[in-house]
Here is the input.
Amino acid sequence: MNIKPLADRVVIKMLEAEETTKGGIILASASKEKPQVAEIVAVGPGGVVDGKDVKMEVKIGDKVLISKYSGTEVKLDGEEYTIVRQSDILAIVE
Here is the structure.
């Protein structure tokens, strides 16, 4: 089953959080921060949103930084995805 986002929405899959700190300390799963880097899985068509023309700036496969607690989490076929508006994406990571 595929997810096809509408309007200016983007489907992302969060990348795994770091397991160890730079100093080599292994983190327990409860102490890990929610990751903010994600990979784009699907992109909506854009168009007119709230009376403004929205051009989609991201594409499938881009790695992006998102706002910390943005989006709606969904589970599909055992995989967890987050659906966010393009405006919740802060930057593309190159």
